[in-house]
Amino acid sequence: MTDTDDALLRRSLDAVRALREQVGQLSARTEEPIAVVGIGCRFPGGADSPERFWDLLREGRDCIVDVPADRWYSPDLPASTRRGGFLTEGAHAFDASFFGIPDAEAREMDPQHRLLLEASWQALEHAGLLSGTRAEQRVGVFVGVSGSENALRPRQPRDTGPYTATGSAVSLAAGRVAHTLGLRGPALAVDTACSSSLLAVHLAVESLRRGECAAAVAGGVSAMMSPAVMLALSQIGALAEDGRCKVFDAAADGYARAEGSGMVALMRAADAVAVRAPVLALIRGSAVNHDGRTSGLTAPNGRAQRELISRALDTARTDPRDVDYLEAHGTGTPLGDPIELRAAADALCAGRTAATPLRIGAVKSNIGHLEAAAGVAGLIKTVLSLRHGEIPGNLHLRTPNPRLDVERLPVVLNDRTSPWPDRADGRPRTAGVSSFGF
Known about the structure:
Blueprint: H1 3-30, E1 34-42, H2 50-59, E2 65-66, E3 83-84, H3 103-107, H4 111-127, H5 132-135, E4 139-144, H6 164-168, H7 171-181, E5 187-190, H8 196-210, E6 215-222, H9 227-235, E7 260-268, H10 269-274, E8 281-283, H11 302-316, E9 325-327, H12 336-348, E10 358-361, H13 364-367, H14 374-388, E11 390-391, E12 411-413, E13 418-419, E14 431-433
Helix pairs in contact: 2-14, 4-7, 8-14, 11-12
């Protein structure tokens, strides 16, 4: 071998080492945990802060109320349309001057825009990301939102003004947050029905790992402003007669609609530690799919749900037996609940015993089904449960649905607030959160 050949070989080996190092760095980046560093929320039951939300969950409060007087009420409507998880303090309440928005513009804003602004500001302020230098960085906004019921309310031509279009556009639900708070990362709205907000979080996680933004605020919003959607859902039998989500119970007969907004501030874990942001929990992996052609457009599919959970576990590099708790989609429907529980058991319960069960709950039993914001409500509940070392109990769970087969499965339907102790093997407490859209 000549000196030239030897030098060429050394350069080739150096190049291979450099490429391997680059591949390793890229691989580590795509798997880097994402830290939840802030929470903002406006949920039923007066839960306008994480602390108040945790209090109502821990106390087991039922937040379903009659339709407020400022919305609609008619004895001619079906009983299932007369109750829900409403923001009784008023979805219209909004401090426009705080955000520098003229009163005339605020009056024509969809209440969903207002709720998102409040929850986003609260999450970013909680995380310490609203200082001028950080806000000017690439902070992304990822919002789950399904249309605008406010746009369904009767309007006269004279009610239309210069802010009507921007006040109701779904795309501007995210754009307004970025504009008002001076955030310069990606800003987008996504609609996959009841999985919208959790998908928004998934997209934020992927964007952070790709380096498209240095931080993000993600979640969703829903506001019930017209009886039209409520009536349509009642007519297809989706709503419970008593207006409550009786998740996993034999009496489950549909869900209770609810409204509100939840947003979480996110950063790459290493970046959060570097700036001393409060790390509330880590998102290690997430996944999304569709169940393709099934028996019906809105019918749930157990195989697709099982595959989705397994894919999320793979991306998180997590053994199914390490998952202590599942915050289920759990709407309280006689068809959907058994399918979801069996899929979760198939994906998460292999090798478990009665001594190491999977505990399962659903926040919808407390506050109702927030539809586009449902997933992030479950995520926030789970983060707070991790922080406090307790799992709130499901309400309205008296007799488990016999189709669940809970007696033969190593699962516990969490029907009362219970401790979530540190694991004996030293591993961190771990949970999963599921959300599905029709």
